[in-house]
Amino acid sequence: MMKERILAAYDPFVLPFVFGMTFVLAYCLIALVKVLVQLPHADRRKFALSLITPTTIYKNIRDILCDALLHVKLWKRNKVLGYMHSSIAFGWFMIIVIGHIETILYIPERLHKLYYPIFFRYFMEVQNETLQGSFFFFLMDFFLLVILSGITIAIIKRFRSRIVGMRRTTKLTLTDRIGLYSLWAIFPLRWIAEGFTAGVAGGSFMTVPIHWILHNFMSNPENITVAWWAYSLALGTFMTVLPFTRYMHIPSEILLIPMRNAGLPVRHTRKGFSLAMLYSCPSCGVCIDACPMGVRKKNVKDATVYYVRNVKRRNARRSLEIAEKCLMCGKCASLCQVQMDACGLRLAYRASHERRANKLPADFGYLAAVEPLPAVGDQKVLYYAGCMSSLTPVVPRSVDRVLKAAGVDYERMDPDGSICCGRPLMLSGRVEEAARLIEKNKQLIEGSGAKILLVSCAICYRIFKEKYGLQGVQVMHYTEYFNRLIAEGRLRVQNGHQTLVYHDPCDLGRGCGIYDAPREALGAVGQLVPALKERQESICCGGSVGSLTLRYEDREPITRAALDNLTANNPEQIVTACPLCLKTFSRYAPVPVRDFAEVLAEHLEITVQ
Amino acid sequence: MIDFGYGLTPSATLKIENVQNPKFAALHEREPDVVKCIACGSCTASCSAGVFTEMSLRRVILSLQRGREKETLPMLQHCMLCGKCQLVCPRGINTRHLILSIGKVYGLNEEEAL
Description:
Largest interface: A-B, 38 and 33 residues
Oligomer: heterodimer
Radius of gyration of chain A: 30 Å
Structural class of chain B: mainly alpha
């Protein structure tokens, strides 16, 4: 049993903590209101509805638990970093929870005091030991040990990041440093402070031994308040600087997760949902190693973490520079711990800049004169080769051969030049203009009556899937379609036993989640060897239309790095499923680069009739 | 030097500074590569919009250099920014960004443009 030791239930040392905590709570409340007010009406409604939908409630709780507290995603990627983050986050959370449970159990009338559960050991003393009390003491010390081990790894990481598997870490700002050092200080100071009171207020395997070891020092009552002051000051400093540091991601993420699960889109450079997203960036720096531009040291500072920092600081020049330079490969976003929509945020920036600065409106009046397609009917497949195919004629030619071999009845949509799919325009920030191309293409496709639209360009495929919303038309990438033809036995291929490596185009893999269909089909015509990094972590070819400002000299090292990654296991050929990757790789590749359809067309089973 | 009277009279002197147009200078500042163009016409040959209109990036660049933007700016409005010209350019000019920059420096309206 425990009883109150300090009857006033107050000591001046709690003030720094109370100030910091009140400040951070007030700041977060105002920020929450700001974000909600900035949301467009429809989005706010959608968000509110999602908060009362049972499936989203479940998803929110699961995501907050798994992502924010346990860092499951980080565990999967890097066990040491996963342990480090989850030990601090979950350990701290548990210490707060157990502190509150103790207060509720032993002295519920003090629960309304903000500081009481935090400084519980200072105000209480043990009357007689019980199993329940010892159990809580043990838990408290156990989680303190967990946090301290995490802090130790954090300190090692700061000075030798390679030990924990990170090549580069984020360069911290001054406030970030203050936050970091005060965070490091909190738990060792708590350990010492609780060591003082371990004699009267009880303790377990962490606090009691330190009380014994530093007995002479800790039995001097003059030192007690100093230790508790130091602990409270560290907490107070951390809380006070928190809104201006990367640690703002801790409260922001709790808002971001439900907003993301509600399916809100990024609409603005830094308002509403985007603001919540910007503040959720923990500056962990995973995006720095992920960025393909990082092969050149001068581009390291163009990673998403620095973009977020510049937008938050309203540094317009750097924000625009980074926004326009990005390849939009989406690798940082797919590895991001808070699932930052890195491309979406940059696109919003480009769009707002284009709307403001570009004085030459597009004129697509000539599209009206483009004649409708001849009726294709629902039995035939409509094949859209995309405008890039005129530079890689091998792609449509091979697709033709494969389709004929499989006996598929089809019609080319664009044998004499196509209207662009609109994705390059959209990527350059001209969203309204892109919408006009989309509208025209949509009209052509839907008017033809085709049921299947076959696409051989990953870039086109992505926008067809994401923005067209074609009614009654199934959009299929040729990797999916040909793989299905092989599986159904309509397309018969021979295995040439060549070693092939498959490159995941950004828009097809990370963009549309198609990883297996091309691999299955290629497995039927050759022997697939893995690349060093593939699927979600595949490296952009460097030719992306996503980047507006990257020059040839800067693209070349990216292409070479991607090629090194692909040829690590000495394949005889590199196979890709995007005409732009094909063209980019062909320039520097040490082994032949082939298109997916080209490889299939070469391995068609010849039937004697 | 003795002036024999056969020199250029001021009225007959061509001053290049007066001919250079400030807008092209502004464009050149944004896009230094614009002067790299050798007018080979690869961009025009590969142009997606060129299938449907008389769009020619080669002509646009030439006319801008000569300060006769009005003749070709409407042409540039047809651009779909697909980026094939960038892929075929033998001089490695970032044509997509160049086209976007032209839109920012020139624009349709004289008053708005500067």
